[in-house]
Amino acid sequence: MSTRPAYLTATLAKGLDVLEALSEVEETGLSELARRLGVSGPTLFRILATLAARGYVQKSAASRYRLTLKAWEIGAKTVRRIRLRDVARPFMERLAAATGETVHLSVMQGDGIVIVDKIDSPHPVRVDTFVGQRAPAYCSATGKAILAFLPSASLADILPRSYARHTAATIADRAAFERELADVRRTGWAKNREEWRDGVCAAAVPLFDSSGAVAASLSVTVPTPRFTQSALREKLVPALKKTGAALTDEFARARG
Amino acid sequence: MSTRPAYLTATLAKGLDVLEALSEVEETGLSELARRLGVSGPTLFRILATLAARGYVQKSAASRYRLTLKAWEIGAKTVRRIRLRDVARPFMERLAAATGETVHLSVMQGDGIVIVDKIDSPHPVRVDTFVGQRAPAYCSATGKAILAFLPSASLADILPRSYARHTAATIADRAAFERELADVRRTGWAKNREEWRDGVCAAAVPLFDSSGAVAASLSVTVPTPRFTQSALREKLVPALKKTGAALTDEFARARG
DNA sequence: TTGCGGCATTTCAACATTCGAAATAGGCTT
DNA sequence: AAGCCTATTTCGAATGTTGAAATGCCGCAA
Questions:
Q1: d(Cα A172, Cα B127) in Å, to the nearest integer?
Q2: Dist CA B145 CA B143 (whole Å)
Q3: Phi, psi (5° rounding) for residue A122?
Q4: Which residue is nearest to nucleotide C12 (CA to C1')?
Q5: How far apart are CA A144 and CA A217, in angstroms?
Q6: What φ, ψ does residue A55 adopt, rounded to 5°?
Q7: Are A160 and A113 in contact (CB under 8 A)?
């Protein structure tokens, strides 16, 4: 291609493509993957050989390829640097006990949020989520709780130019979203009523660091049938606000 | 260099070097990192630009670089495929309650083990570990529990050619290690008495899948003062064996 | 057993990409 | 204002990457 910026290394990008593609499947063969990525056999062969030599990929005797946990190990060292995680654990447990619902701790990453810790609801009907999962910020309670309290300078970079529709309830334009954020600022908590995935609702509060900047978000994720006005009013929102405030206090204290 | 195998892509390898180097530090500048890795400024600049464009690295206004959670997200999708993890959770909780010690679920990866889930001991004196942490297989209880039950074909690839000494107690030669594995096979559980880190002991049992192959290991990690003969005999080993057997049963059942 | 078809691997010469020296730009300190 | 350090851009040289084609390997069908 002629318009590719000259300051990017194409070979590395291709390697990352492979890593990402492999993360989507359990296992794959060389030519299948080559077809999917649109690279030639020999090229992919070399990339896979390199990734395997470095321990990112495992090659079976039958030349089937799968990811190892190497990327995860690297990431684990990164997550561990999020101090809030350790501080938050007991508060999350308290919130889980008080609500009986799945509790998430999430941070902003790029234009989405990533779940960095969770406690599962004991309820047999619960939402399937996992630590490490990403969601678009603009259609998750967690994302809104954070976005609403970001300085407008940072916000500008993050606000989606296109509000892709994921469900019937997805907020699909800028004006409506601005109104939503204003609501969050006014009430102190954010909600998501099936805006990303059908059947999945959530409520979230922001968490602040000692400088007063929003650092993360604490949320409860609930199947629609249990996400009633009365549950919110009497249980979820009070518990969230109380735990969120206590955690923000503790976090500010923990680092002086 | 002249002796580099021609079927590896050097540029990708360099990018992985950068990823790995960044995982070791909170944050770094370009030239500092270039010095450490022995690459030229412009080269590193391009690599970092590529990694940033792909979302693996974040570049601050002051041109400081740090990893994002992207690698972790990719890894999370990989870990999620380890079915045993979900099945094991309640058993781990039971074991944690029965022993009051930190419980780990670990799998083999390359020549080491990686902790894929854990429950912290409530005890104020406890060992600092984290999910995603790696340890050499030959000097961890977990590793020995798995190695002891691996088919000898796989074992040959994994057994270290050099038994690097980490502490005074590290098993440092092949013969002694073979004896150790024989012991594990005979007794059904493995121990580690400060062989990797001073002050850290552990006991572990293997977990098997429905085909009877060793799939993972369940362990308790304990500070040396609490790792007494009587604690082992009366509490740790019985609880481990009981939970391990029950979990292996359940796991076999879960997949037919 | 042979032959066919699909996949993986290796070879190799053409070529695009990456390389680093050097020049430029931007900060911060003295 | 001068000096120093780091980040970024430029650009020609050369190195690394590329894919077509050849080869090897395996399983399957005849």
A1: 49
A2: 5
A3: -75, -10
A4: B6
A5: 9
A6: 90, 10
A7: no
**Among A54, A69, A72, beta carbon nearest to B13:** A54
Contact A96, A88 (CB under 8 A): no
Cα first-last separation, chain B:
52
Residue B199 CB lies within 7 Å of the nucleic strand C: no
Are B140 and B113 within 8 A, CB to CB? yes
B30 touching A, CB under 8 A?
no
Q: Which residue has the higher pLDDT, A200 or B6?
A: A200
For chain A, how big is the Rg over CA atoms in Å? Answer: 21
- Hey, what amino acid is at B249? D
Rounded Cα gap, residues A189 and A199, in angstroms: 20
**Measured on CA atoms in the order B50, B53, B58, B63, is the torsion positive or negative?**
positive
What are chain A's domains?
A: 10-72 (1.10.10.10), 81-254 (3.30.450.40)
Rounded to whole angstroms, how far apart are CA atoms B158 and B108? 10
CA distance B56 to B49: 10
Residue B236 is given by DSSP the state I
Q: Chain B residue with minimal CA distance to A19? A: B74
Pairwise CB contact (< 8 Å): B71 & A54:
no
Which residue in the block uniquely carries the two structure tokens 């121990």? B191
Per-residue pLDDT of chain A in tens (256 residues, 90 and over written 9): 334 566 799 999 999 999 999 999 999 999 999 999 999 999 999 999 999 999 999 999 999 999 999 999 999 999 999 999 999 999 999 999 999 999 999 999 999 999 999 999 999 999 999 999 999 999 999 999 999 999 988 888 888 877 899 999 999 899 999 999 999 999 999 999 999 999 999 999 999 999 899 999 999 999 999 999 999 999 999 999 999 999 999 998 876 4
Q: Which amino acid is at B165?
A: R
Q: At residue B87, what is the residue type?
A: V
Per-residue model confidence as pLDDT tens digits over B236-247: 999 999 999 999
B42 CB below 7 A from strand D atoms: yes
